[in-house]
Write a structure and sequence with these properties.
Elements lengths: L4 E5 L3 E2 L6 E4 L2 E6 L1 E8 L2 E8 L11 H4 L5 E4 L8 E11 L12 E7 L6 E6 L9 H4 L3 E6 L4 H7 L6 E2 L8 E9 L2 E6 L7 E3 L10 E6 L3 E12 L15
Antiparallel strand pairs: 1-5, 2-3, 3-4, 4-7, 5-6, 6-17, 7-16, 8-13, 8-17, 9-10, 9-16, 10-11, 11-12, 13-14, 14-15
């Protein structure tokens, strides 16, 4: 893998009050408690980000309070995303050595991020367990959460199993096309151009109804991103879904 990554980094930085800015193509990203650079990866320029543990420490004995937090790259080009499509290609590696051996390659998107980072929503992947030979582990390959009140453990404790987690056919060390369709309280996730969604959130729980979009990684993860596309749309009114009863 070391041969796959060029050691030459190409990046443009600007000084801001919130952190370093990186220009990647025609897009500008503001780094929030992550390190970042534009590098050559597999012959293509990509945005590489990793969580900055000096800026935002991690405590494995207090997981929920120190993960899924303000560690992401904010796309500055759009500040009022509410409904529409967010699509990105992303690639997840584990750091070696790892500061947290159980890490599952956490990578994904934040959206509807408030200006002051006080609230947002997210769907992200745990690629390490996406195709593992254990169904219970696979069921945690996808995670929704809403900051600050509904992080992963709170959702597991307060809602029926599987309400805000699911499975997806993903893995570490491979490119994943990750697409979110956001519409009102509903979010759907599509993987690798599959026709049907792999995961759906029937009722999102966030306090922020519009805002920025961000690229997310968490503990022990190296994330590579490219081809981010954000398309805003008006709210689509959908017919009420059929009620599903017991079989």
């Amino acid at each position: 893998m070391k041969k796959y990554i060029s050691i030459i980094a190409f990046f443009i930085t600007l000084s801001t009050s919130k952190g370093q800015n990186i220009i990647f193509g025609k897009q500008t990203f503001e780094l929030h408690n992550v390190t970042g650079s534009v590098i050559k990866f597999g012959g293509k320029k990509v945005l590489k980000i990793e969580r900055d543990l000096k800026a935002l420490p991690f405590d494995e004995k207090n997981l929920e309070s120190t993960v899924d937090d303000r560690h992401y790259a904010r796309l500055l080009d759009i500040a009022d995303f509410e409904n529409g499509t967010i699509e990105v290609k992303m690639y997840s590696q584990l750091q070696n050595p790892s500061p947290y051996p159980p890490a599952a390659g956490f990578i994904g998107l934040y959206y509807r991020i408030a200006e002051d980072d006080s609230a947002w929503e997210s769907i992200y992947l745990r690629p390490k367990v996406g195709r593992i030979n254990n169904q219970m582990a696979r069921n945690h390959a996808v995670q929704y959460f809403a900051y600050p009140n509904f992080k992963f453990q709170t959702l597991r404790d307060k809602f029926p199993a599987g309400s805000y987690e699911g499975s997806a056919p993903v893995m570490l060390n491979e490119w994943i096309t990750f697409r979110l369709e956001i519409n009102g309280e509903i979010a759907e996730m599509f993987i690798n151009d599959l026709k049907y969604s792999s995961f759906i959130v029937n009722k999102m729980l966030g306090n922020s109804k519009k805002g920025y979009v961000g690229l997310y990684v968490d503990i022990a993860t190296i994330g590579y991103f490219k081809d981010l596309k954000v398309t805003k749309r008006a709210l689509k009114v959908k017919k009420e879904a059929e009620k599903v009863g017991d079989i």
